[in-house]
Amino acid sequence: MAQAKTLGELKAQNYRVRPVKDELRANLLKKLRAGEKIFPGIIGYDETVVPQIVNAILARHNLILLGLRGQAKSRLIRQLTDLFDEQIPSIAGSEVNDDPFRPISAHGRQTIEAMRDKTPITWIDRDARFVEKLATPDVTIADIIGDVDPIKAAKGGHLLSDELTIHYGLLPRANRGIFAINELPDLAGKIQVGLFNIMQEGDVQIKGYPVRLPLDVMLVFSANPEDYTARGKIITPLKDRIGAEVSTHYPTELQLGVEITKQEAWVEREDLEGSLHIPDFIRETIEQIAFEARDDQRIDKRSGVSQRLPISVTESVISNAERRALLTGEEEIVPRISDIYAAAPSMTGKMELEYEGEQIGAAKIARDLIKRAAGEIFEGYFVGIDFTRTVRWFDEGNTIRLADTASAEECVMLLESVPELIDTVLVPFDFTREQEAELIAACEFALEGLYAQNKISRNEEGGYTAATKAKKDRRGMIYDDLTETERYS
Description:
The chain has helices at 7-12, 20-34, 49-58, 73-78, 106-115, 141-144, 150-156, 170-173, 189-193, 196-200, 227-230, 236-241, 254-264, 280-295, 308-328, 337-342, 345-348, 355-360, 362-381, 388-395, 408-416, 421-425, 436-452, 479-486, and strands at residues 63-66, 87-91, 121-125, 130-134, 146-148, 166-168, 177-182, 204-205, 212-213, 217-223, 244-247, 275-276, 332-333, 400-401, 456-458, 463-466. By secondary structure, the chain is of the alpha/beta class.
């Protein structure tokens, strides 16, 4: 059926306009009956967050997503537009997406009165029905609700109390759509008060003039729990009017985190010179860094450790491996543990440190997190495998250094000098000695695991040496390691 271009054609098609929350509910029910995924690309929320959002939409509630940074709150909110109809009709020229059958603005009413069935209709895409605002302390009520525009009044010869003099804010412009406010606690209290009417009575008032707009809008907010005390708060009457509070969370399992990072990290590089292969143990080690950081007492838990950390680290690790391939002229690009150390600058800016952490320094904590993460993943791959002869070789005073820029040929030659290391490392993996790039990455991973177990030591230049002394609790104090690395700084 051809789209109607006038109000008369729209009436002839028996078109029925639905309130926005009814529209969202109806389209959500269709997706549920068809077994479609409600939020494509969102991993790890199928049993927790998604059901709560679905319930809120089915109940026609306004909602708030509450969680720490990097938990996909904004992505979830933006994907709500997929529940809209592809297009809806509106009176042409309306600033507030006027319903052709029930206009709310003076412009819409006057147009209908003057042109009746010849009123021109425009069709609005679903993406144009989403208005988003980042809350900041300088946001004004005029930004959100609107204000009287004296220039409009002067040019049109209208009284200031005339609705035609209004410059509409973001909320009226979201009529028949979704209005989202990110970081709600940062919004000044008096601005939050301005949202009361729309949430309870369904209309807004401009400035104090007798102009009321009965808006049809779904309100969605996001907030970080830290913000309640650090920068502001959500005032109690507003919280009371929000129908559903949905808590988001970080991945609960390592493999979920790995899948998220795989999906989000920039890995497919069209101009990459060579073939890229990222071993599973490297992916898991990178992800484990975030898990370790979230449990670390030296890192502020109120701020959280964003999922952006492993994503950024993965991208930096690939870049360092790519740089090595360019320097050595090798075509196969396989990241190693040394590349993760080289990616430490991608970690330090994503961790808010407690006092103890500030005293130690972000760079040293990042190195400790890599060590602990590698040790955790090492135990999963090499459980029950004996590295006694390899450790004894280091105890005899031997050392090995695998620089992050060293070629595969150079690394293999060095690794072959370590008794039984290569043969032992090959046990849990399905590649062979001929696959040099993977072999080097696995051997360095094993050495890092032995270092994490305090059976050998590692210096600042990436050299593995004999352990200076026994450290029984590798998860405990790290000051011995810090002292050791400072000698090589």
